[in-house]
Design brief:
CATH class: Alpha Beta
Structural class: alpha+beta
Helix content: 25-40%
Distance between the termini: 34 Å
Shape: globular
Number of domains: 1
Number of strands: 5
Length: about 130
């Protein structure tokens, strides 16, 4: 029903192939369209996000290509509504299960919850 835009595909450059596999499968089965906001980050970009309060660590999995941020698209715009992230999360978790890749969702974290954030499991991907 949905497909990744060229812009989203370009933002997956440098992201671990297993996580790319999850995102590509998720867009095929999601009930809600989504976009890739960010994949691989430079240290400078990460430092800026920490300074701004949008991230809490300089040890982000984005720095190694083990994380991606995605956001639901509703009425042609990025949605920041948690209900939309939960709909999207179900599809990403199902996609990960289907392609047999362990992922973690920032929306499941205690404390600083990060709805757009998906990363490869630290237990498997060092």
């Amino acid at each position: 029903m949905y497909q990744l835009s060229e812009k989203s595909i370009s933002k997956l450059a440098g992201v671990h192939p297993d996580l790319v596999k999850v995102i590509k499968r998720a867009i095929e089965i999601t009930p809600i369209d989504f976009t890739v906001l960010e994949g691989l980050r430079t240290k400078e970009r990460q430092a800026y996000l920490v300074k701004k309060g949008a991230s809490k660590t300089m040890r982000s999995r984005h720095l190694t290509g083990h994380a991606v941020d995605i956001a639901p698209i509703v009425n042609g715009k990025v949605s920041w509504d948690w209900k939309d992230y939960h709909s999207l999360a179900a599809a990403v978790k199902q996609a990960a299960k289907e392609v047999q890749v362990l992922v973690e969702w920032g929306g499941d974290w205690k404390g600083f919850r990060d709805g757009p954030h998906w990363q490869l499991s630290r237990s498997v991907y060092k």
